[in-house]
Amino acid sequence: MSQGEIRFRGLTLGYDRHPAVHHLDGVVPAGDLLALVGPNGAGKSTLLKGIVGEVAALDGSIETGTRAIAYLPQAAEIDRTFPVSVLDLTAMGLWRPFGAWASLSRHRQKLLDALAAVGLTGFEDRPIGTLSGGQFQRALFARLILQDSRLILLDEPFTGIDERTTADLLALIRGWHGEGRTVVAALHDLHQVRAHFPSTLVLARRPIAWGPTPEVLSPPVLARALALSEAWDEAAAICRHEAGPTHDGRHAHDPSGHDHPPGHGHAHHHAHDHSHAGHGAAP
Ligand SMILES: Nc1ncnc2c1ncn2[C@@H]1O[C@H](COP(=O)(O)OP(=O)(O)OP(=O)(O)O)[C@@H](O)[C@H]1O
């Protein structure tokens, strides 16, 4: 498979055997620029962590074309008290290709170039704890540049970030897309998704719709995502029912149960709703 591709097969991800994402089938094609949307607790972060291997599959599988995935966690999960400079933080992007003990001096120009690309020239010796939220996010993007991966995962990269920085970072993402890299980003701002992300996966613990953004971000789909999320039973055991749209990277699916656009789809959709409690094996 191509390096930037991601394949989900009957995927269930969760914590202590309680599913946070389930019934996910489909392929993110290499080069896709995919937004992951859904209400709080919908499983977006869990899915990204599943792709990088931080959360193990309870059922089914995830295959990626590369193990060297560039991943930006949610800001709240990153410890900024770690006493390193902006240059050191950026250099962590080189660890995978060169090993932790490689001399960084010969990569210094590459590091400075990455800092310049995110607008942080002159910040290289600043301790990361002294940066503003937006400057820190820029530094993390510099680290992503250094990782030079074909597959880039971003968890709410613009939350708490001002418009100017967001615009700059979106331009970087568009550049990665132009280079044929795959980018998957969990986002809450639907205007941003409509403007910049050609494909969207709507999650509410299970996939609600997946396909071209203009088709997927319809009011009924979003209402359904919210309703399903609110109805979720936190105590549910693993559910083994087949449900949710499958995805082949080209076609949108909606909750009506019909492939969309008509006549184009060959993937199948099982539209039945089901209660999660009581299905499958209890732990
Ligand atoms: N480490 C954990 N242990 C137990 N449950 C967890 C853990 N992390 C997340 N969950 C649960 O998994 C579900 C999905 O959470 P997740 O963080 O993936 O949602 P999200 O879509 O990213 O939400 P948000 O938009 O609020 O960031 C939630 O019910 C959450 O409480």
TrEMBL record:
Domain ABC transporter, chain residue ranges per copy: 6-230
SMART domains for this protein: AAA (SM00382)
Alphabetized SUPFAM superfamilies for the sequence: P-loop containing nucleoside triphosphate hydrolases (SSF52540)
Compositionally biased region (Basic residues): 263-273
Alphabetic keyword roster: ATP-binding, Ion transport, Nucleotide-binding, Transport, Zinc, Zinc transport
Pfam families (UniProt xref): ABC_tran (PF00005)
Record protein name field: Vitamin B12 import ATP-binding protein BtuD
Domain of life: Bacteria
Composition bias type Basic and acidic residues, residue spans: 244-262
Region called Disordered, residue ranges: 244-283
InterPro entries assigned to the protein according to its UniProt record, in alphabetical order: AAA+_ATPase, ABC_transporter-like_ATP-bd, ABC_transporter-like_CS, Metal_Ion_Import_ABC, P-loop_NTPase
Provenance organism: Methylorubrum suomiense
UniProt record similarity statement: Belongs to the ABC transporter superfamily.
Coiled-coil intervals: none
One term of GO molecular function: ATP binding
Entries under Gene3D superfamilies matching the protein: P-loop containing nucleotide triphosphate hydrolases (3.40.50.300)
